[in-house]
Write a structure and sequence with these properties.
Elements (H helix, E strand, L loop, with lengths): L16 E7 L6 E7 L3 E7 L5 E6 L9 E6 L5 E6 L4 E5 L13 H8 L11 E6 L6 E5 L5
Antiparallel strand pairs: 1-2, 2-3, 3-4, 5-6, 6-7, 8-9
C-alpha cells in the first residue's frame, strides 16, 4: 500500500501494512502505525519533506503486537502510542533524529524514563485523547468479551 504526503513516503519496512495515521495538529509531522509478520508492530514518524525521523518498535513483551491508538500532543512534538498489549507510551519526537538515519534514542529514552514500563490496561488501548491545552491525557481500552 502506498502512502502519499505530497510525495511518496518511503516504506517503513518491507511488506508492512499501514494500520493507522495521525497528523500533528501544528508541526509538520505524521505518524504511521504499521504491522508486518516479520517485524511486528512499528510506528514511523515522518517530517514534512517525507524523511523518516523515528521508528518506534512494539514493546519487547508484546513484540508481535501493533499500535492500536495514536495521539499527538496539541502543541509539543510528543506522540502518545497505545499498544495492543495495553501499554501507553509518550515518545518525544525530534527533527534531529533524521540525522541519525531515522533512529532516535527512543529505546534509551524508554529505558531511562520508564515510559511504557507499566501496563495501564489489560486490553488493547483503543482511545488516547489529550486535553485542549495538553496538560492531561485520557486513555481507554477495548473491552474484550470474557
Amino acid at each position: 500500500m502506498a502512502l502519499y504526503f505530497d510525495r511518496l513516503l518511503p516504506p517503513s519496512t518491507k511488506g508492512a501494512l499501514a494500520v493507522d495515521v495521525e497528523w500533528h495538529p501544528i508541526q509538520g509531522f505524521i505518524a504511521v502505525a504499521a504491522y508486518s509478520e516479520e517485524k511486528g508492530g512499528i510506528v514511523v514518524v515522518y517530517n514534512e519533506p517525507g524523511d523518516i525521523l523515528d521508528t518506534i518498535e512494539a514493546p519487547p513483551s508484546t513484540a508481535s503486537a501493533h499500535s492500536s491508538a495514536l495521539s499527538w500532543h496539541p502543541t509539543r512534538p510528543l506522540l502518545a502510542i497505545g499498544w495492543e498489549g495495553g501499554e501507553v507510551w509518550c515518545v518525544p519526537v525530534s527533527e534531529t533524529a533524521s540525522k541519525f538515519g531515522g533512529k532516535s534514542a527512543t529505546k534509551d529514552y524508554m529505558k531511562q524514563s520508564g515510559a511504557g514500563a507499566e501496563k495501564l490496561h489489560k486490553d488493547p488501548v483503543g482511545l488516547l485523547q489529550w486535553s485542549r491545552l495538553g496538560s492531561r491525557m485520557v486513555s481507554g481500552d477495548q473491552v474484550r468479551d470474557s
